[in-house]
């Protein structure tokens, strides 16, 4: 860990201003991802801005019938919220499928969206990794890639976004609200929030320097049956090999998004149009451009079969 | 005390304290955070500096140059030790690679420097400032590629090649044959407490509080490595947060803490960061195994062959995966072969049940496979091929035996062998009769359900072990021995032994362990700790009883030590009276004759497993497990059960998830943290049952006990794999059995 300075502002505007002012500043929320990365010197902020006292820890009904989730709402609290459990059950289920109780008590909504990949080479500073050290190469492409991405990947990086929560947020068409150092607010559709790796895998979101997430909002509930199915080698406390989030209506229409396959939660409109035709058709659309490695080719049949189980469950 | 004739009735047989499921006496210290682990000896070392180890960034090559300037001038730094300024170092005889590398690098994350600073954070930050210029020489990292050039290598307790009868002819002639290849991956001990040491120099005398399973070995290895007299080294290991074999030997933490403390002129404490545990320390080596079994139509084995390939650094050792195959099943014609490839991966070495653990993973699938070919129940097949004598007892494979077919000359019977009874008991208890032998037929909602079974087998080893026992003036009994408790329950069974022998309640016994100032014990390893260390305490107690009897003027042969009194006939004297003029102290140990040469001492068991395989995703979840064990007298059914369920859990890990993934280009284990190296969590282990068959083994020691902690893991993984086969009809022979190996072969989701 490199020495850093620390401050604890009291308002979102102050926090954003501080981030814009200090080169190499970073926000710290629960710290469950950032601190691990700092210990390994994968993240080396010069200045930490603690955002835990900004009053961003409330879940409120919004005027359009949706929900406004403060950036600092803990994953445990969000999963347990009655309105979330009733109207956005897929979100609650996705959250509870992630990490473990202790981590969920500490992890925040914004921090979860911004958690970094779990590619093992990213974590080993002796190894080439374009995401950690742009231009150094991708060790995973011809190395250990069993967990990594199969779609939307590039020659520069095949990492996945490891979040469960983000997959449900994507399914629910959430919007990320921000404020920057100049006090300007912005709303970013979750679809536009995470980026594909392309040639710049180190740039993971469309956030700009110093931009602070203040809330994530959900539009009004869409009903339907909410399912989150996470597939993993062990029963708990493991990142997804793949996951399927789905909302299925009585008539068989609905939405579906995948986790564990791409650099962002993966959702394809054409796939949703195919839902009444069954899992195979949906999977074909979702993974039309998939380019798996030898080690993660199993994800393709796994997605299709898991989708099959999810759609069957929705009917049942 | 020499133990050279079978045990007869002795005070242990009273079973007033021994054999009771008592809580562990150190439990309260662990649950209240007052157990003193090596990194937390603030009670004796109040102001230590902190050491942080830098591991090599390449697998094989040389350090061309170090740039230490930035690190040296970093805040708080007291000293930096590398091979350049460490002084002359030797290598422990149990270490294959050097514990401080450089300029030559032998494996990834081999330690090349230790930074000592005022705080942990400062030491770590400074270590990250060290720049190293390497010459990367590449290396051999792929076991399968190295198999062709692998050389015969002796396994612990056996020759590189063994042969009885004429395997080749008998196998070729067998009407039913099984020939298959299996593989097991590299595995990490992944114990909770990483290697950790606090080191203090007093002149030229060194004290190490270090997490180590084998104190006396450790003293010798530290002295050898640091080129100093043994007498000047003291090792203390009061509590150990798991070892599983990774702390049998002295490792980097101990040597670098000592070197760092010497360089800084300050006590130093040092723990390996988790990321270093996987590549810096030892691991269970991967194996590729070939098994051939020939049987006649009735299911009798006529030929059995087991070959194993593993790799290690130059000068290293093979995994002993074939060893159990020489002893477990009958069959007149047999062979085993062990081959070792040179690999430049981190050092392979002992991990819980080394040899049998990986060997049984393969052998017990093979047995399931041939039973199926014979259309026999796999339990029936095992019962039919049981043997009460060791079927391959040859010390070396003789040239003739391979062609002529001379069975081993002298018969070696097992001292006890209740393998059949284990299967019979488990079969009823587990509801084996309900198993559908046709795979892929049983469905429970989304789950394909299957049952699997495997034998458990592990030898019992006799090693001398000593202790000192003292009667205090207040009537308490104090036991001192350098035995360690690695979470197994040594404290408790030793206290039970002393309480039984001296006729006092267990709370009147104080047990002090893990200090090289105490008499040398068997230590913890190879499941030999329990039987041998308590036998050593038994011996010391016999001596103390004699001293007490003499002091009280009674005949020790007639004296009964019971309820805090020494009784002869109707007369009883308080035990404490014997110490009224001062504490009485006796030291003795157990030493063994040749009973283990006349009788093969082994432990046996049967593992039963039910799994569910998700019909869509192929996720595998264990639903219930049963182990039936026959392993001599169970000294404490509670701590013994804990050992077995822990071992079963580790077996589930080996079956379903544990694998150190080799990067074959760069030569290292990629998943070197606990997020990447998965071990079972609570959710993976729903229900475990353990049954101990009633058994005492008079050949093993006056305790009549044997090992149990490693038996528990042997065979588990195969029972899981066999259950997966029964559930799905898909046979996976390459561990771990993960969903990607099944997914293409399951029926369509519908
Ligand atoms: C062992 C382990 C297992 C895990 N398993 C899972 C799992 O199965 N599924 C899963 O989904 N997740 C898992 N996680 C990840 C966990 O969900 C994240 O670590 C957590 O959500 C991050 O939240 P945080 O508040 O602690 O973020 P922090 O670590 O505080 O921050 C993360 C990033 O977000 C930035 N940030 C934080 N708040 C803001 C803000 N308001 N505005 C702008 N930037 C901000 C920080 O600067 C930092 O870059 C696991 C983590 C661990 C350690
Ligand atoms: S996949 Fe991405 S994160 Fe992983 S090594 Fe390649 S560039 Fe780095």
Automatic annotation (TrEMBL), chain A:
GO MF term list: FAD binding; xanthine dehydrogenase activity
InterPro entries named in the record: CO_DH_flav_C, CO_DH_flav_C_dom_sf, Diverse_Substr_Oxidored, FAD-bd_PCMH, FAD-bd_PCMH-like_sf, FAD-bd_PCMH_sub1, FAD-bd_PCMH_sub2, Mopterin_DH_FAD-bd
Name of protein: Xanthine dehydrogenase YagS FAD-binding subunit
Leader peptide range in chain numbering: none
Domain FAD-binding PCMH-type: 1-223
EC number(s) stated in the UniProt entry for this protein: 1.17.1.4
Gene3D superfamilies given in the database record: 3.30.465.10, CO dehydrogenase flavoprotein, C-terminal domain, Uridine Diphospho-n-acetylenolpyruvylglucosamine Reductase, domain 2
Keywords annotated in UniProt: FAD, Flavoprotein, Oxidoreductase
From TrEMBL, chain B:
Keywords, sorted A to Z: Oxidoreductase
Superkingdom of the source species: Bacteria
EC top class named in words: oxidoreductase
All copies of domain Aldehyde oxidase/xanthine dehydrogenase a/b hammerhead, residue ranges: 32-138
EC number: 1.17.1.4
Keyword Coiled coil: no
UniProt keyword Amino-acid biosynthesis present: no
One GO molecular-function entry: xanthine dehydrogenase activity
Matches recorded under NCBIfam families: peri_hyde_PaoC (NF041671)
Protein name: Xanthine dehydrogenase YagR molybdenum-binding subunit
Organism of this sequence: Rhodopseudomonas rhenobacensis
